[in-house]
Write a structure and sequence with these properties.
The protein has 249 residues and is α+β, with helices and mostly antiparallel strands. The protein has three domains: 72 residues, Orthogonal Bundle (Arc Repressor Mutant, subunit A); 94 residues, YebC, transcriptional regulation domain (Alpha-Beta Plaits, 2-Layer Sandwich); 70 residues, YebC, transcriptional regulation domain (Alpha-Beta Plaits), CATH 3.30.70. The protein is built from nine helices and ten strands. The strands form three sheets. It has a four-stranded antiparallel sheet. Helix 2 packs antiparallel against helix 3 and helix 2 runs parallel beside helix 4.
């Protein structure tokens, strides 16, 4: 199974309940602000902002906090000008990493990412050396108990492309621009889902064969995710369910 999407879902559920809540809020608010700066504050005309707004609301970011972030992005309130920077590299055991950041200091962010990888058995790679192993998609994760035919009947007309079993969860994929419509169709049909986000899916995966290997890979991903400037970390590892279950306990 493609482990990263399942790991991300586990972290998403934990994030709303543990001490990282404030850091999660800060990252989501920054994403809203950048989306508003890039495409304006009208969510009907700015699909990226609409997606970031919903992502923030899903994580219980207060509405007034989101609205202030939008105003900073459009210039109605004073804000910081963040730059979108991506880094490509490797975690231990040859796992490819694609790291998305928003930064007001390119040198600081690059130094932090490089140092973290070097100290934890990974390495930074040249631009383009890893990106080709991923494709950007809208992804909705649904409980495994949900009926497959029900999901497809609702989602196909809204733009969904594929539905696969991802380690006991359903992974529904679509083009990033179709995610709001697919999500809305599921909500209107009362089909429950765990998360809905635009993400980078690996086109091929690296098999992780032991719990020790898995811990070393996931440690790097978690440490990167903890950096203030890092917004998302994508990886192409695959971990057997029994190893994953042991790690998630």
């Amino acid at each position: 199974m493609s482990g990263h999407s399942k790991w991300a879902t586990i972290k998403h559920k934990k994030g709303a309940a543990d001490q990282k809540r404030a850091k999660l809020f800060a990252k989501l608010i920054k994403q809203v602000e950048v989306a508003a700066r890039a495409g304006g504050g009208d969510m009907d005309a700015n699909a990226s902002l609409r997606t970031m707004f919903q992502k923030a609301r899903d994580s219980s970011v207060p509405l007034d906090t989101i609205e202030r972030a939008i105003k900073r992005g459009t210039g109605e309130l004073e804000g910081v000008n963040y730059e979108s920077i991506t880094y490509e590299g490797y975690a231990p055991h040859g796992v490819a990493l694609y790291v998305e950041t928003l930064s007001d200091n390119r040198n600081r962010t690059g130094s932090e990412v490089r140092s973290l990888l070097t100290k934890n058995g990974g390495s930074l790679a040249e631009p383009g050396s890893v990106a080709w192993q991923f494709e950007r998609k809208g992804v909705i994760m649904l409980p495994g108990a949900t009926d497959e035919d029900e999901i497809m009947m609702v989602a196909l007309d809204a733009g969904a492309e594929d539905l696969v079993d991802d380690g006991g969860l359903w992974r529904l994929t679509c083009e990033p621009t179709d995610l709001p419509e697919v999500r809305l169709a599921l909500e209107e049909a009362s089909v429950a889902f765990d998360s809905a986000d635009v993400t980078m899916l690996p086109t091929s995966t690296v098999d992780i064969e032991s719990e020790a290997e898995a811990r070393s890979v996931l440690r790097v991903i978690d440490l990167l995710d903890d950096l203030d400037d890092v917004q998302d970390v994508y990886a192409n590892f695959s971990i057997r369910d029994e190893i994953f279950d042991a790690l998630a306990e």
